[in-house]
Design brief:
Radius of gyration: 13 Å
Structural class: mainly beta
Number of strands: 11
Helix content: under 10%
Number of helices: 0
Shape: globular
Strand content: over 45%
Distance between the termini: 40 Å
């Protein structure tokens, strides 16, 4: 079955870095656009970054531009989110998502940034 498994979350101090990974299985990974979303307590889920089927440049939310980089490795069926200069407002559950005709979601990984 389709699985998206995020990892790499944790607790980090403001200014620190984390690298999230999302391992995909159960579907043709290279045919799906991939994205990262996040949801903070009491807020709606928001798009953080998205990357096309072929990879290359990703698109980012204004709030994370210059601090976060998304990439994908189709051979490893994995997408990454490198997060630098983290801020307390980056605290959220981060979700990986795959979309073509159907959108799939992972279970999420918690990122907590302390001030």
């Amino acid at each position: 079955q389709v699985q998206l498994v995020e990892s790499g979350g944790g607790l980090v101090q403001a200014g620190g870095s984390l690298r999230l990974s999302c391992a995909a299985s159960g579907f043709t990974f290279s045919s799906y656009a991939m994205s990262w979303y996040r949801q903070a307590p009491g807020k709606e889920r928001e798009l953080v970054a998205a990357i096309t089927i072929v990879g290359g440049a990703a698109n980012y939310a204004d709030s994370v531009k210059g601090r976060i980089t998304m990439s994908r490795d189709n051979a490893k069926r994995t997408v990454y989110l490198q997060m630098n200069s983290l801020k307390p407002e980056d605290t959220a559950v981060y979700y990986c998502s795959a979309v073509r005709a159907t959108r799939y979601w992972g279970q999420g990984t918690q990122v907590t940034v302390s001030s």
